[in-house]
Amino acid sequence: MWVRTRSRFLFYLTLNNSCLFYIWLSWIVFSSPIKNINILEEFSDITVNHNGSLIATCCTQDRSVKVFDVINFDMINMFKFEFNPRIVCFVHQGSDLVNALAVSDARSGNIIIVDSNGNNEPIYLLDKLHQRPVILMQYAAIPDVTISIDDMGMIEYWSGTKSNYEFPTSVDFKYKMDTDLYEFCKIKQIPRSMSISPNGRIFAIFASNCFIYIFNLSSGKIILKLDETIEKYIQMGNETKGNGLPPMEWTRRVALEKEMATRDSSVFRYIKLIFDDSSNFIIYPTPLGISVYNLVTKQLVRQIGTSENLRFFGIALCRAVPSFTEKLQGAATSVRVEAAENPNLRISEPDPMLVATAYRKNRFYLFTNVEPYTEEIDGSTSYNRDVFNEKPLKEDMITAVEYENAMQQSKLSTQAVIFTTYGDIVVELYPDKVPKTVENFCTHARRGYYNGHSFHRVIKNFMIQTGDPTGKGTGGNSIWGDDFEDEFHPQLRHDRAFRVSMANAGPNTNGSQFFITVCPAEWLDGKNTIFGQVLEGFNVVQKINQVPVHEKSGRPRDEISIISISLKNA
Length: 570
Known about the structure:
By secondary structure, the protein is of the alpha+beta class. An eight-stranded antiparallel sheet has the order 32-33-35-34-36-31-30-37. Strands 1, 2, 3, 4 and 5 form a five-stranded antiparallel sheet that branches. A hairpin with a 4-residue loop joins strand 14 (about 135-140) and strand 15 (about 145-150). Helix 6 (about 395-410) crosses helix 7 (about 435-445).
């Protein structure tokens, strides 16, 4: 997840328990992090204070909260609690003497306030605000209001240090019944993410029903709802022929959204909503890219990254509007100058940069209005969009070496010896005729995949079948993880007994299961891929084929299994 600070730094939390410090100067970003901090357990939350000088990370599993000094890239404090912290949020203004940090309990509705420069002793305890654990919490410094939401969808307002964490006096209501803050309890939907606008006047919530709710912070009323459900995009796709995408790409995106909704719904908590510095635009990821919505005109004004085949989740906007300090130093132009129609007043200034992460991708992506370029050795510049600067993981390198070795050996293997509990079967392989099928079999054999697999199906006077790790006839994968296509060769037919063929559930559904015939079976030609022929051990195959079996399943009454498989060359 990304966090942007006003001190021109980006922080990125990874799922492999790393906190990366990046510096950004308008759209220029170093390709390597300034600092990388690793911990033993996974981060559960990260927060930054109002002026970008401090950040805090939270780890539920080891019950720790760490505070970092942004400018010095250093950890300045660490808290160890007796409870499991879940969410952290700085709740102080610039004039406050204490840099107050709110920490929620993962197992109760309690929120404790600690001094980020102090010890574990809480300076205040909010134990009656929520009945359930808090899952979202953000602070708006301008109105001095903290918004916290629990896992039942209950939204609460409370103030900062100056008002002793009581109900804020800066809002326009006294009773929640006069607001829409009970909305998520009514519709029984859980907020996934929240963002407060820079001016502190509105806040946005992305809920589990895939709607974005825009609230007026002062009144607590919903002023806008944005439908981001996949059903809406499917309807749009039917009207616009795939929302301008190729049919295959549009179908893939719809399938991905449905898969995430049913199998991996927890990833939606990483969807981030952000406002621009004017608070007039809200930016959020969608199945079609990243949308920019004008809250004043209530129109979708821009769609970013639609052509990229990525599902974006976390986003951060690096502002191009200069800070007050930069204006005094004359280091940047002002908003008034940049908006001027007179071209002489406008100078070439780096544009806003949008940083994004994507689903199941270990890279981050930068969007700007300026084309990227790199400087060559001779001083010339050339277009070079992608930077491949990440180092492969040690596990990936080991797997790649093992896979390469397996590939080499499998291509050279022309014979296999299947050691079973009933005896040995020598099989001739055909790597020159059906290379992919032989590669799959040999690689599985080298890895010991078939060891212990039973002959789960025996049909007398026809065949014996094995290769299923579940032993039920419904399991088994190829070495690539998915089914692979059939390979039919005109010289390989089921015109004789003791052929070794792939079992499947239809065309191009080969996995790991295979069978050995005991008679000619020409009706299998064009349906099952032959990749071997028994050379020795005919009696073993016949013996297995004649064992007593269960009538319905064809499973032998006494288990017969593969001990191991060795590969060799003739």
